[in-house]
Design a protein that fits this description.
Oligomer: heterodimer
Strand content of chain B: under 5%
Number of helices of chain B: 8
Largest sheet of chain B: none
Number of strands of chain A: 0
Distance between the termini of chain B: 48 Å
Shape of chain B: elongated
Order of helices and strands of chain A: HHHHHHHHHHHHHHHHHHHHH
Radius of gyration of chain B: 20 Å
């Protein structure tokens, strides 16, 4: 009998990947060799299993490179709790503590919203830990409403946890119910989410690594790790690391789907869309965004909804399908009311204006931007309103209405003179750029982006 | 209640304080799929309950969440037991009465996914080229290395590992 055939050749035989002469030679070997026949049976099963895993996307998106020391290369194994300590928390006790925690959570969030800081909490008690954890999770869901505030809240929690861990050993009931490291992980995750909004991507990255470690080492669940991966996928997509973003988003999506949390799965799908877009696969990106959009609407996750719609429009624009993008916005604008969704309408109109601007339809873009600015002013969102007005001004210049652009700039300058957010010198530069008969469009565009960056930086400085 | 509202406490409590019929169903699942005895299953269910309470704000279907987390915890528990057996052969095992044979269906896939994490990147890339990108295995081998013969040995070793995990 010839020596045994290696597994790879047998797998090729199983899947019909061998030439006729090779197949005949293997077949005659199999007739004589029970060990290789057993291997073939085992490989047939493995082939079925690998097909099932492939259909769930767990191989990753093709040949993707993670650096060997990349902390996200593989999902870390979760630490198994010390089993000798289990059994001391009765489920009914834990439910009662969690229920009291939800009430206390609202008080914590109220204090944070008022700017009163973190209330004095006794983290030796399970209910207070539940409260803090729930408050951090809720702050993450409301991140669009105040990333600066959320970041300050996360910092305060981290200080509190540090002093608590240094001070004394926690009672078992509290530590089993909500380990301090889970609270720490949640606080780092919130910091990262806030940094994503203020475009501080480098700090977001380090906070996500800290969150990943804290959850993995200290009693977090798969859902916690998937949440971190989902945000890291977005960050990588923004950082032009599309391949890694795709793997992480898919990994997170599988977990969320297994756990039946469709709103979180939609966020992971949205992150996949961003990754596809980074890789220039705009059709795939649009497909992902369209899959996520109705889920955001069903769960009333409006900041995700707006971001997703803007992403659809950006991708459609890149594919040259501007009218389709316009129709997407028109459908969304018809759906929302002026009273209930005022700021949402502002963001939608800004998105529409940017899409039209990007497509060179400056006249329509200026009208959409002016409406967006008005909505933001009415909602008291001054900084966002400035950005919309600057887009309106640039659109007017590009459409050739220089006088109207100058008039709009005068009004903006008066508004800004009463607001310390912006350095007036940048506005003076815009005025200079507009003072000539034939303004330098490139310079104007750069100045608008510079102002957007200034506003973002001002928010970053407040986050410390 | 808003569309995004998490389930009420009553529903959470029902998912945790299972009636004996549902509890027994989960224990039977742990035994038949993973070979886990009821004492260990009890502990795993308690960990699951605490995880549900920590994530109650995210969860939409508490029963589904409990089942998915319980299943994942069972798989992790078994994996750790196997690891201990490999490290301390003949020693005591904390998965008493644990059946070393591999479970069927979805949990074998879970084990396979875990095993895929363990194999070399080049082997994983080859498998992805075949199972996802639709290349032939011979072509896929070229994706990871120029020489078919040099790559076949490595891939065969990885396939052996995967077969072991998949049963």
């Amino acid at each position: 009998m010839t020596r045994h055939v290696d597994d790879f050749v047998l797998l090729r035989c199983v899947v019909g990947d061998l030439a006729e002469d090779e197949r005949a030679s293997i077949a005659s070997h199999l007739d004589e060799c029970p060990q290789c026949r057993a291997t073939v049976t085992s490989l047939e099963k493995l082939d079925g299993g690998l097909r099932a895993v492939a259909s769930s996307g767990d191989f990753g998106e093709g040949p993707t490179e993670f650096a060997p020391d990349d902390p996200f290369r593989r999902r870390p194994r979760l630490r198994v709790p010390d089993r000798t300590r289990l059994g001391s928390v009765a489920p009914s006790t834990a439910i009662a503590a969690s229920e009291r925690g939800t009430v206390l959570r609202d008080r914590i969030l109220e204090a944070v919203r008022r700017g009163a800081g973190l209330p004095d909490l006794l983290l030796r008690e399970a209910e207070q830990r539940y409260a803090l954890l729930y408050a951090l999770q809720q702050a993450g869901r409301e991140i669009a409403e105040g990333p600066v505030r959320a970041s300050a809240f996360a910092e305060a929690v981290l200080r509190k946890v540090r002093s608590e861990s240094a001070a004394r050993r926690a009672p078992e009931e509290a530590e089993q119910s909500v380990p301090l490291s889970v609270i720490r992980g949640q606080a780092h995750l919130l910091t990262a989410m806030a940094c994503m909004w203020t475009r501080d991507f480098s700090r977001a990255r380090s906070s996500l690594v800290l969150a990943y470690r804290a959850f993995a080492r200290g009693g977090g669940g798969e859902i916690d790790l998937a949440l971190v991966e989902s945000v890291e996928a977005q960050r990588r997509a923004f950082a032009n690391e599309g391949a890694g973003a795709l793997v992480l988003a898919r990994r997170a999506q599988t977990t969320f789907e297994e756990l039946g949390v469709d709103d979180l799965a939609a966020r992971a799908i949205g992150a996949r869309g961003l990754a596809f877009s980074t890789l220039g696969r705009e059709e795939d990106a649009v497909r992902c965004f369209r899959e996520a959009l109705p889920v955001y609407e069903r769960h009333e996750l409006w900041s995700n909804y707006v971001g997703c719609l803007n992403s659809i429009a950006t991708s459609l624009n890149r594919l040259g399908r501007v009218d389709e993008a316009r129709r997407e916005y028109a459908r969304a604008l018809r759906r929302f009311s002026q009273e209930r969704h005022r700021s949402l309408l502002g963001y939608l109109r800004t998105g529409l204006a940017e899409t039209l601007f990007g497509a060179g339809r400056f006249s329509q873009a200026s009208v959409a931007a002016a409406r967006a600015a008005q909505v933001f002013r009415d909602a008291g969102m001054r900084a966002t309103g400035y950005i919309a007005t600057l887009l309106e001004i640039e659109s007017r210049v590009r459409q050739g209405s220089l006088d109207r652009a100058r008039h709009r700039l005068d009004l903006l300058r008066r508004e800004i003179s009463r607001d310390p957010t912006l350095d007036p010198s940048v506005i003076r530069e815009i005025a200079d750029a507009l003072s000539v008969a034939d303004p330098d469009m490139e310079r104007l565009g750069t100045l608008r982006l510079q102002i957007e960056e200034l506003i973002a930086r001002s928010a970053r400085e407040k986050t410390g | 209640m808003g569309a995004d509202a998490p389930p009420p406490t009553r529903q959470i409590a029902e998912a945790i304080l299972l009636d004996s019929a549902r509890r027994n169903k989960l224990f039977a699942f742990a035994r038949s799929r993973f070979g886990i005895g009821s004492d260990d299953a009890q502990d795993l269910l308690q960990e699951t309950a605490l995880e549900l309470l920590r994530h109650r704000g995210y969860v939409r279907s508490p029963d589904g969440f409990v089942f998915a987390v319980f299943r994942a915890r069972c798989a992790r528990f078994i994996q750790r037991s196997r690891l201990r057996r490999q490290m301390f052969p003949g020693g005591s095992d904390d998965a008493e009465g644990c059946d070393p044979s591999l479970p069927d269906g979805v949990d074998r896939q879970f084990a396979l996914r875990e095993a895929l994490d363990e194999i070399s990147a080049s082997c994983r890339r080859l498998l992805a080229a075949y199972y996802i990108e639709g290349r032939s295995l011979r072509e896929a081998a070229r994706v990871v290395s120029l020489q078919y013969s040099s790559v076949a040995k490595t891939i065969s070793r990885c396939l052996k590992k995967l077969r072991k995990c998949f049963g």
